[in-house]
Design a protein that fits this description.
Layout: E1 18-29, E2 32-40, E3 50-56, E4 63-69, E5 76-84, E6 100-107, H1 109-113, E7 120-127, E8 135-136, E9 151-159, E10 164-171, E11 174-180, E12 187-192, E13 202-213, E14 216-226, E15 235-243, E16 248-250, E17 256-259, E18 265-269, E19 278-282, E20 297-298, E21 305-312, E22 315-322, E23 334-337, H2 347-350, E24 358-364, E25 370-376, E26 381-387, E27 392-396, E28 412-416, E29 424-431, E30 434-439, E31 444-449, E32 456-462, E33 470-475
Parallel strand pairs: 1-20
Antiparallel strand pairs: 1-2, 2-3, 3-4, 5-6, 6-7, 7-8, 9-10, 10-11, 11-12, 13-14, 14-15, 15-16, 15-17, 18-19, 19-21, 21-22, 23-33, 24-29, 24-33, 25-26, 25-32, 26-27, 27-28, 29-30, 30-31
The structure holds beta-D-fructofuranose.
Length: 481
């Protein structure tokens, strides 16, 4: 089947065929999670963007749906979000039905070619049948470009304290906030970030969310940036602060990254999930996304992640961990006693199977240098480790598989350790061609794709003076039927 191809991820969503980049329009509505995505149905490279569509009841198994939005005379359909307009503020509902309203960027390729600077504008479309079919609003665009070349990726939510819709929009080197009573007329509220955070590239795909820590409410602003990520190319930074309906004020000026790895970009959260915040990223990097060696499809999404706040050394950080629903895919959970892990012992021998996709969780009483080496019978290896002297985690994919397709691909990615705890806790999600590392409760994360010749059938722990306390390995079922 389409899902048995070489490199095809078995526990992650990817399009049945052709190209994807950013997740769009993430929403939980009437018990269904919707994932729309940047899609070019005619090719495995980026092109005229559509919104593809997939749905899920549990965040892990997905059903491919028909294309939701096609390019039109106003341009390609770039990234954006979806809200359920329960009060019918837009007037787009009919017969008491709540309209789903998509707010997206129309990118006019002709305008871009002609040298205009106003070729990105915000438009809306609505669905009255649970996202199956969409009608574009007749008076698009609803938010016109004021002369800023990069003017895109609207993320909208209902700001209840002031009864208004709030839009975060990427506007070149900053985020601009707009508000609206009806999703059709938008008013500028404020700007943020011109002098804060990473600025090695253009700002994209913002998301403003609120989370509580010890009963206190904070606001977190997610901002993707390309290039300028900590390991090169694309990455997503975040700011923790306050928001008063008009202005976002950060608590400090430290730049933090939700994931330090090369392959977690353009991630935003699902609407409709209440206090639970679920983040989903594109598992790719613009440095080489158009060149990765898959054949009939290109690129995928990360595992959905649950966000929370953690306080560390008096500062507030965002932590992300795989959603608990991933556990639904576990066939069983094998516990590996630390004593069985004599240096060089093969974990897969101890648990008597080498699963193609699995989660691994281990804790150590004290954190020293270690390496986890995944190896296959083709002589390739993927190394995950911690460097105590430099206090950082790393993933080395330089010998993990095919890297001939791009000079930008091979190498080691690092994530600084943020936690100051003595003990440590590490979670890995490994799939046919991806690895996600969540360290210290999700404070230091690394996501990386790789393209091995053969499945990884050996897993060794190399640690001289560190004892693994507990290790659990859960082989995962494939999400594809
Ligand atoms: C981010 C991005 C967005 C844009 C979309 C185009 O990866 O560049 O800013 O809307 O991709 O596909």
């Amino acid at each position: 089947s389409a899902y048995n191809e070489q490199y095809r991820l078995q526990a992650h969503w990817s399009p049945k065929a052709k190209w994807t980049n950013d997740p769009n329009g993430l929403i939980l509505h009437n018990g269904t999670y919707h994932l729309f995505y940047q899609h070019y149905p005619d090719s495995t490279v980026w092109g005229p963007m559509h919104w593809g569509h997939a749905t899920s009841k549990d965040l892990v198994t997905w059903k491919q749906q028909p294309i939701a939005l096609y390019p039109d005379s106003l341009g390609y359909i770039f990234s954006g979000s979806i809200v359920a307009d329960e009060k019918n503020t837009s007037g787009l509902g009919e017969g008491g039905k709540t309209p789903l309203v998509a707010i997206f960027t129309h990118h006019d390729p002709k305008g871009e070619k002609s040298g205009s600077s106003t070729y990105q504008n915000q438009s809306i479309a609505y669905s009255l049948d649970e996202g199956q079919t969409w009608t574009k609003y007749a008076n698009n665009p609803v938010l016109k470009n004021p002369g800023i070349k990069d003017f895109r990726d609207p993320k909208v939510f209902w700001y209840a304290p002031q009864n208004k819709w709030l839009m975060s929009l990427a506007t070149k080197d900053r985020i601009t906030f707009y508000s609206s009573a009806n999703l059709k007329n938008w008013k500028k509220e404020s700007e943020f970030g011109e002098k804060l955070g990473g600025h090695g590239g253009v700002w994209e795909c913002p998301d403003l969310i609120s989370l509580k820590l010890n009963g206190k409410q904070y606001w977190v602003l997610l901002v993707s940036i390309n290039p300028g990520g900590p390991n090169g190319g694309s990455a997503t930074q975040y700011f923790v602060g306050n928001f008063d309906g008009n202005k976002f004020t950060p608590l400090d000026s430290q730049t933090r990254w939700i994931d330090y790895g090369p392959d977690d970009y353009a991630g935003v959260t699902f609407g409709g999930t209440g206090d639970r915040k679920i983040f989903l990223g594109w598992m790719g990097n613009w440095l080489y996304a158009n060149q990765v060696p898959t054949k009939n499809w290109r690129n995928a999404m990360t595992i959905p992640r649950e966000l929370s706040l953690l306080s560390n050394k008096g500062r507030v950080f965002l932590a992300s961990t795989p959603v608990k629903e991933l556990g639904n895919l576990a066939m069983q959970t094998e516990k590996v006693d630390g004593n069985q892990l004599t240096p060089g012992a093969d974990v897969f021998q101890v648990i008597k199977q080498s699963p193609a996709q699995f989660t691994l969780h281990f804790t150590t009483p004290q954190l020293r240098d270690y390496k986890l080496v995944l190896a296959n019978d083709a002589g390739e290896e993927l190394v995950i480790g911690y460097d105590a002297a430099k206090t950082r985690y790393y993933i080395d994919r330089s010998k993990a598989g095919d890297n001939s397709f791009s000079k930008q691909f091979a190498g080691v990615a690092y994530a600084p350790r943020i936690s100051s705890a003595l003990n440590s806790d590490l979670k890995l999600v490994v799939d046919a061609s991806s690895i996600e590392l969540f360290a210290d409760g999700g404070l230091s994360n690394l996501t990386s794709v790789f393209f091995p010749k053969a499945p990884y059938t050996h897993l060794k722990v190399e640690a001289k003076d560190m004892k693994v306390e507990n290790m659990e390995v859960s082989p995962l079922k494939s999400i594809w039927k």
